[in-house]
Amino acid sequence: MSGNPILRITAKLLLPAILLFALYVQFHGDFGPGGGFQAGVIFASAFILHALLVGVPAARKVAPAWLVQAALALGVLLYAGVGFAGLLLGGNYLDYNVLAHDPVHGQHLGIILIEFGVGTTVATAMITIFFTFADAEGAPDPAAEDEP
Amino acid sequence: MIQAHLPALQVVVPLFAAPLCLLLPWPRAAWLLATVVSWLAAGIALALLWTVRAEGPISYALGSWPPPIGIEYRVDLLNAFILVIVAGIGAVVMPFAKASVERELPPERIVLFYVMYLLCLTGLLGITITGDAFNLFVFLEISSLSSYVLISLGRDRRALTAAFRYLIMGTIGATFYVIGIGLLYMLTGTLNIADLAARLPPLLTLPAVQAALAFLLVGISLKLALFPLHLWLPNAYAYAPTVVTVFLAATATKVSVYVLIRILYTLFGGLDLPELPLRPALMGLGMLAMIAASLVAIFETNVKRMLAYSSLAQIGYMVLGLGLGTAAGLAAGIVHIFNHALTKATLFMAVGCASQRQVIGLRDLAGLGRRMPLVAAAILVGALSLVGVPVTVGFVTKWALIQAALAVDLWPVALVVLASGLLALIYGWRLVEAAYFQPLPDEPAAVAPPLAMQAPLLLLTVACLLFGLAAGWTLGLAEDAAAALVGPAP
Q1: Per the structure, how many domains does chain B have?
Q2: Which domain, by its residues, includes B309?
Q3: Residues B27 and B68 in one domain
Q4: Residues B67 and B200 in one domain
Q5: Residue ending a domain, choose from B275, B301, B325
Q6: Least CA distance to B4: which residue of chain A?
Q7: Under 8 Å between Cβ of B71 and A102
């Protein structure tokens, strides 16, 4: 697909816009429609478009497997960690009120951190799923398989 | 301070450990983390049971949002008991897991195995502890998705088709559950189980509520593999890695039985619903499972599949117990969750110790009594427990179940229980006969399992006998839990 200049240039123009829009959806999620799930999927779609453009091996260099896997875990850890922070600061699990000096700020901080965790994990999960299916190298040779 | 947060920690500690495990590069560290977390979870579960026994039900508001609005974790005697079973089995299985997983899984997948195990544990504990119907669905999905992955890790390629079949059936089950919950939410505007239970009684004659109950029952019956909906289970248990089979056979379907009890007795307040013949339906299906699955087990030559069919029959006992609708019947069903978890974990673990093959036939057990005396003894105790011989845990259940059936003058039911025990004698005997009376095979025998695999097996075998002798503790607990749901026994 990279041989076609129209597709290549259009995709190049779109990529930063997609990433920026994903970040907007992510961090505007506490004021308007949006949040981690949607933002994560949008963010990952930029990587998928990039992979369609340059091929899977080249796209793998932008998102190496170890980094994606680490981010996948860190997103969940951030979510669960915010819950533990609430616990340590004297509230119940996932109580945001105690995270800052007054409850409103606490709720704000809590939801932003939680949604960032969700966004990270959703984006990396989408990227992982795409690469797992697209990466022909990792798949076994269909001709070599024998059914028991 | 920590005491008050135990309900949250019960679920969150394994949940936090799962991604942490993924970041660890060494299989040994992942195993250590999973083991420590499993033991911690078992400790928390015991502490919760202790607290509930002393002080009554615990309610925990997640995020400090008060219950009907926020998600509530609610621990009463029933789910504290189930928590102890699930976390306890996890704690016993983990020391066994290290050697077993190294035998059966490729090295690069070992860390992923522990991640999935921790997620599965999280899901099962979450289903059990939550007091919120939708939260229950979320945990149901966490545990199901991770168990599909765990099953697909089996060496045999048939594990993949077994996992895929389970995925299809499990997803249908979970979807039915969520449709049922959706209908109830539409009618009542609440998802909290206690709140739903308070609002449902005047609505019970509405067709929508009855449809909701039907969806919930069929959905959960798929998950617990009640007889006509069981087709995913035998292959899933037969081709999964040994540890996975031990863990899932002892916990996954049991947690689904708990959900069924919760739906019928807490949500709908018992079996006496207008226009719905729940008692005959549940008892009929339970007895059908007891007879039909036992018959299949008799003719099965793959030992793991035989045990899987026997599990289906044992699930029949539980459903029969809770279908009786009396406190005594329910108590028999609840105590059988515990007893069968012990029995089946012992048997699957013993079979896994006996041979390293994925497909274990009866011939692989030949001469076991001389090659591996402990493993053979465990098979003997497990088989006796399935039959319901006194001194084993299986007897406790049979006794309680027959007494409960006779108390409401259902002697045919008691006869079916006895008949099913006789069928169990036939397939149990085939195992014991292979282990003790078949000559040693000529081919080189399987390597004896390391101590780390034998010690948990010994522990489970002793527990099978111990809780068979000292049945008062478990039976008393089950009776108290049942009385809290139905009202005290007459």
Answers
A1: 2
A2: 277-490
A3: yes
A4: yes
A5: B275
A6: A92
A7: no
The shortest CB-CB distance from B62 to any of A81, A92, A148 is to A92
Same domain, B418 and B294: yes
B294 and B246 fall within a common domain: no
Q: Is the pLDDT of residue A44 over 90?
A: yes
Last-in-domain residue among B275, B308, B334: B275
Whether B429 and B474 share a structural domain = yes
Q: Which of A67, A94, A97 is the best substitution to test chain B (most B C-beta atoms within 10 A)?
A: A94
pLDDT in tens, A111-126: 889 999 999 999 999 9
> b or e along A89-108 (b: 16 or more beta carbons within 10 Å of the residue's beta carbon)?
eebbbbbbbbbeeebeebbe
Specify whether the CB–CB gap between B93 and B116 falls below 8 A. no
Mean pLDDT of chain B: 89
Are residues B282 and B195 located together in one domain of the fold?
A: no
| Prediction pTM value | 0.92
Which among A77, A93, A147 has the least Cβ separation from residue B19? Answer: A77
Q: Distance from B467 to chain A by nearest Cα, in Å? A: 36
3-state helix, strand, coil in chain B (%, to 5): 80, 5, 20
The mean pLDDT value for B386-400 works out to 89
Tokens representing A56? 């899977």
Tell me if B226 sits within 8 A of B317, measured CB to CB: no
- B16 contacts A80? CB cut-off 8 A: yes
Same domain, B264 and B409: no
Asked if residue B68 and residue B28 are part of one domain, the reply reads yes
CB of B396 closer than 8 Å to CB of B333: no
Contact B19 A73 (CB under 8 A): yes
- Residue among A72, A75, A93 whose CB faces B12 most closely: A93
Which chain A residue has the Cα nearest residue B8?
A93
Query: Minimal Cα–Cα distance from B23 to chain A, Å?
Result: 6
